[in-house]
Amino acid sequence: MSTNISFNHSKVSSAVNIKNKVAIITGAGSGIGRACANLFAQEGAIVIVADINEKLGKEVASEISAKGFVADFIKLDVTDESSWVNVYKFVQENHSRLNILVNNAGIAFGGSITELSLEDWRRLMAINLDGVFLGTKHAIPLMQKNNGGSIVNVSSASGIVGSPTAAAYCTSKGGVRLFTKAVALECAQARNNIRVNSIHPGAVATPMFEKGPTWSDFVNQMGGLEGAWKKIAESTPLGRVAEPQEIANAILFLASDASSFMTGSELIIDGGFTAQ
Ligand SMILES: NC(=O)c1ccc[n+]([C@@H]2O[C@H](COP(=O)([O-])OP(=O)(O)OC[C@H]3O[C@@H](n4cnc5c(N)ncnc54)[C@H](O)[C@@H]3O)[C@@H](O)[C@H]2O)c1
Question: Are 141 and 73 spatial neighbours (Cβ–Cβ below 8 Å)?
Fold first, then answer.
């Protein structure tokens, strides 16, 4: 294998610049994806808001357009390969390139493994893991046509350490972590200039928890919504949960050339949770 040694340091970009880059963000209708779509658009990217929820996705694209930035909404079910093919066809026809993919769509639910149905296990794997596989598989050929790109996979602190009531979620996010490393190495070996990294947020203030089937039991146990969030915050060394924007900032860094020597890496943004 030839090693390309360059002493021309002026080539290295220090700017977090994604101006005019075409970026697909999955699950951009809510939470972290929404913050990311707004931030990327504000930084000059052409944002493709891809979500299964048409109402939320269209709302985000309109919110971005109203600020004078560029965004399109396209409906995407990350579990469905034909849906992905449709998204890439749209991107190719309308923007002729793809520079950034953020595989962010995901769901979470807790509960005991002995009570988890196979159907729910498979549904979670389909969204959290199959979705990342399908998006990445079809992004690579398109990115290759444009001399490379950056793929950011949203894993979790729960993809690094276990949690006693979230076996399915931890499995899916651990899968995303190693999928990222394997694909990063494949791309590096191919010298196709595509970088693949994962991010690992701790608890973030988004509606994700509230959609899980056991959330209401937890809220009741904690004496209400405020108590539930307080309990989650207390498990974090910084004593609070993250704002979606704090996660979007890290995704922006990985998506941009400022992280040009990072591939196959895992960026943890968890207020110290996994440092314990
Ligand atoms: N919120 C947290 O504390 C936290 C922590 C660590 C990691 N994460 C991860 O961050 C990502 C985003 O989570 P969030 O908290 O913003 O959640 P969220 O529920 O606010 O947003 C998730 C979005 O994904 C979309 N989605 C769900 N299924 C889909 C499908 N099949 N196809 C396309 N879109 C689909 C939803 O419509 C929604 O807009 C997830 O992968 C999640 O696991 C979240």
Answer: no
- Ligand 1 near 127 CB (within 6 A): yes
Nearest CA to ligand 1 atom 17: 208
30 conformational bin, left if phi > 0, alpha if psi -120 to 50, beta if neither: beta
Closest-CA residue, ligand 1 atom 16, reads: 31
Q: Quick check: 245 and 35 in contact, CB under 8 A? A: yes
Q: Tell me the pLDDT tens digit for each residue of 171-200.
A: 999 999 999 999 999 999 999 999 999 999
Domain boundaries, the chain: 18-208+243-268
pLDDT level of residue 4 (50, 70, 90 thresholds): low
- pTM comes to 0.95
Q: What is the pLDDT of residues 117-166, one digit of tens each?
A: 999 999 999 999 999 999 999 999 999 998 999 999 999 999 999 998 89
Structure tokens belonging to residue 168? 């399915």
> Could you tell which of 206, 209, 211, 268 is best to mutate to test the pocket of ligand 1, judged by most ligand atoms within 8 Å of the CB?
206
Pick the CATH number of 18-208+243-268 from 3.40.50.80, 3.30.160.20, 3.40.50.300, 3.40.50.720: 3.40.50.720
Tokens of 104: 């962010």
Ligand 1 neighbourhood includes 199 CB (under 6 angstroms): no
Quick one: which H or E segment has residue 194? strand 194-201
Query: Which tokens sit at 115?
Result: 């009570």
